[in-house]
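re: that chain from earlier
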Amino acid sequence: MDNATYATLTRQSGLMQEMQVLANNIANATTTGFRAEGVMFSEYVNALGPDAPSLSMAAARVRDTVMTQGGLSQTGGPFDLAIEGDGFFLVETADGPRLTRAGAFSPSADGDLVTPDGHRVLGAGGAPVLIPQGLGPVGISPDGTISAGGQPVGQIGLVMPVDPNQMLRSGSALFEARGGFVAAQDGRMLQGFLEDSNVNAILQISRMIEVQRAYELGQSFLDQEDARVRSVIDAIRR
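^ sequence. v structure.
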């Protein structure tokens, strides 16, 4: 396999990865709190020898998460929460604490505030948030303070990753903050709202068409290169 084929194959591999990311973004265009992803291409150069030119190849090894604010939809649900500004809710999972912007919560049978997947929401002090029963209507203020029957009973915490570049996606709307997290300062909660996905479906579909055309062009080159090599082999055999 010659160098031109190697270079084209690395490009094709990166385009395929981007196509998968775009498809996942489109599939989650209506997922509450979802953050779109992009693929970052880089170039690496391989030295072929002291008397030979170098070979430049492409790599798509880094996924970049888009953290722009999604739209807010009013639901009226007493335990639906959206974050306006910076910050993430902190939830407890079997694999450890995770960050999320998806605030579709509800009380469990035990009184814990949980996500649709059953993950417990953690408060400002890191303990599970409990929703007392029978005390009257539940209100949640912009700073996360929970009141029942007019009395404060707890507080939902907002956190920020120490290093956003070390956030690892863990499910459709969950993130692992490998560099740790601290209390958020600027975010505020809105009760009765949910944050929409920040995916722009039209832009994602347009980009998918561009990637598909680029992939087809690369495949055409590989087919032509294969035909050229076969013709050379046939010529040598004669």
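The chain has a mean pLDDT of 87.
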